[in-house]
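Memo to structure team: turn this sequence into structure tokens by end of day. - J.P.
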Amino acid sequence: IHLSQVFFVFLPTLALCAWAIWMDRHTLDDCAVPTIRPWVYVQASTAFLLVVAHLAVTAQIQSSKNSINAKIEGMKERLRQAVSDQELSVDEIRELLIIVSILLEHSLVEEDKLRRSAWRSVIGYGTMFWMVTVLWNFVLVLGWTFVPGMVAFHAAAAEVAGDDYCGAWATVFAARLTCVVSLLFMMFNMLSVVQFFSDKLVISEAYSSAVISQARKLDQTMLGTPVVETVVKAFLLRGTGDSLKAQIAMSR
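Reply from structure team:
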């Protein structure tokens, strides 16, 4: 999804804005569409930042995959020895469980590295700002470029229209096309922001303690069996505590 957004949304937007800035470098200041000059610069800067951030996270994900695969390769010989005689003794079952635990712990550590990455924060905050610039763009496009009579764009109307004339046709074109491109991944951007805040909550000790406390209260109503607490830790709070324990276990 990171590469899809880069190549289908952010790079096209960056290219459009850069092209528009160059084409309208002499006419952008005289455009009657309000704030369109700062918009095109802000949109281009935000797109550039998100391109870099998404590519950095993609590289980190690939690095984590390679690390996990290397760990699996390192465990293959132990796994082969454990099942070589086609029969599983108690010691061999124990060895299999150790191998699975090591791989799971290593995966948790890599997942936590990605969750705590600075580039993930850049993507989270950058995506929120991106959605603001998209809304800004929609207001400009729908309010001034689509409504007849608001702004004149033809060069022949420059003298007649006066202050209502805009000669920055490339920037207007870029703004309109950016509206369409931004809609392609709007839902993914919204989900990305939700996931960002979810990750921030997962690594928050206060939030984790509050959720576990509520889970334990629910467990007390079910004969004290920690069913809810186990489910919450497995699916909702697979973060700080588990990752720390995994790092301690791997260091041993």
